Amino acid sequence: MTDLRTTAEAIHEQFTDHLDLDLDDVEARLDTLVTDYKVPLDEARRSVTNHYLDRAGLERDDIGGGAPGGNDQVALADIDAAEQWVDVTAKVVELWEPRSDSIAQVGLLGDESGTIKFTKWAKSDLPTLSEGAVYRLGNVVTDEYQGRFSVKLNRTTTIDELDTDLEVGDNTVEVDGAFVDIQSGSGLIKRCPEDDCTRVLQNGRCAEHGEVEGEFDLRIKGVLDDGTEVVEVLFDKDATEALTGIGLEQAKDMAMDALDTSIVADEMRELTLGRYYRIAGPRFNRYLLAETVDQLGEPTDPDAVLIKARSIA
Amino acid sequence: MSSTPMREVSRRAFAREFNDASYTFKESDDERAPVYLLLPTGERANRVFVVGTLTETEDVGDDSEYWRGRVVDPTGTFFVYAGQYQPEAASALRDLDPPTYVAIVGKPRTYETDDGSVNVSIRPESITAVDEAVRDRWVLETAERTIERLQAFDDDGNDYAAMARERYDPDLSAYRDMIIAALEEADAEPEAVA
């Protein structure tokens, strides 16, 4: 069975309660977009679904996602596309303050694989979720904003509280690559000492609290690059020391001797740029937060690459 | 808040392929849009990462210092130029004592010579002294990235390969042979070139 047919059947099933659709007609619409107009299949699905929503006078939330028998049960870390209808089993890790009246609840869900943001709309009229409780959530829809995924609960979502607990994973990733840049704002820095403010000072000033007596800290904003993609990596004091071998006291001594804090970042560049590392840690926004840092030595398997090269036709 | 432009990947290419390139282009009319060098195996490069043996440095400047370094990999020589606008890289070239392994992150630059041919060089962002393990890893990694480009060359929708075919009409088998020779040399070589 083709992807087109599978997608057509999924759309057909979504509308069974609302419209009397002809499966071939659904497939023909998809086919026009995909074959004649070179539209990617998921975009075509969205477009065709919207067409039928219009015709039925429905909102997106009014229709269910996948087959009547339920969607795929997915791990949170495996969510990598928007507009997917899925089922998840997850714990409410945190609830945040909604920024708008249209949002009933917003926060963080977690399962063994990692965490993801969730939004529950006020108009969906769903029961209230409690922090720390584990739920089976049926028929939630995925969304994406600037490369980060979230799930949205909607009118058709089913919520079953489970009498169990689960261990929440931390979205840890591991990347190998060459360390190609240490960005400004790295090395020996000063942070604002005010309560709950850890902003990095610029010329002795905090953006929030003005001129303050800063507290020294170490950090690196760096870039790891394997020739196909770049990963921005944030190193806190401990990770910076693991990467460079330079601790806070030593960094302060270096700056004192040179009467200049920038010497610390210069020295760190000298020690790390152009070397290969394996770095692991959780992802936060666009950054990988370095938890473990290993420098990579001699390559292990040159013969495999040679075999690959010889096999090119 | 203005969105930060995506940082450009540092491409991996052997010196032979890098020096075969000559065509540069922009993908938007914006004055500050990135300039890309078109690699003959079908990839755009706004930044490169190279590791090799720094064999020679020379101040070729007239009024102010302008340093040229020769960096050798198993297939050829990269030319690296750093002057007053690349103070860290210039002082690295001044201070380093060839021969030594170096890692360089930089931007490809092209210039046309009097006879009309195009030379390619690197304007470094950073130059650091590294050890042989880093160099060996780079040779292997660069071989892998180049193999991947060769394997994808005839793929539908590979726009940069299509562009390379039009601009260079490259002999891909020569690049395959280059990779094999580079790997065999790395394999057979028990100690540093130095």
Overview of this protein structure:
The complex is a heterodimer of chains A (313) and B (194). Chain A is of the alpha+beta class. Chain A folds into three domains: 3-58; 76-162, Beta Barrel (OB fold (Dihydrolipoamide Acetyltransferase, E2P)); 172-295, Beta Barrel (OB fold (Dihydrolipoamide Acetyltransferase, E2P)). Chain A has helices at residues 3-14, 23-36, 41-56, 237-244, 248-258, 262-272, 302-310, and strands at residues 85-96, 103-111, 114-121, 134-145, 148-153, 158-162, 172-182, 187-191, 205-206, 210-211, 215-225, 230-235, 276-284, 287-289, 292-295. In chain A, strands 1-2-3-5-4 form a five-stranded mixed beta barrel. Chain A has a five-stranded mixed beta barrel with strand order 7-11-12-14-13. A two-stranded antiparallel ribbon of chain A has the order 9-10. In chain A, β13 and β14 form a beta hairpin. Chain A is globular and about 80 Å long. Chain A starts with a helix and ends with a helix. Chain B has 194 residues and is an alpha+beta fold. Chain B has a single domain (10-185), classed as OB fold (Dihydrolipoamide Acetyltransferase, E2P), CATH 2.40.50.140. In chain B, 32% of the residues lie in helices and 34% in strands. Chain B has five helices and nine strands; from the N terminus they run βαββββββαββααα. Chain B has helices at residues 15-20, 87-95, 132-152, 159-168, 172-188; strands spanning 10-11, 24-26, 35-39, 43-45, 47-59, 67-73, 76-82, 100-112, 118-129. In chain B, strands 1, 5, 6, 7, 8 and 9 form a six-stranded mixed β-sheet that branches. In chain B, strands 2-3-4 form a three-stranded antiparallel β-sheet. In chain B, α3 packs antiparallel against α5. The model of chain B has no long low-confidence stretch (mean pLDDT 92). Chain A binds chain B through residues 178, 180-181, 223, 225-230, 232, 266, 269-270, 273-276, 296-299, 302-303, 305-306, 308-310, 312, and chain B through 7-12, 49, 51, 88, 102-105, 125-126, 128, 130, 133-134, 136-138, 140-145, 147-148, 150-151, 176, 179-180, 183-184, 186-187.
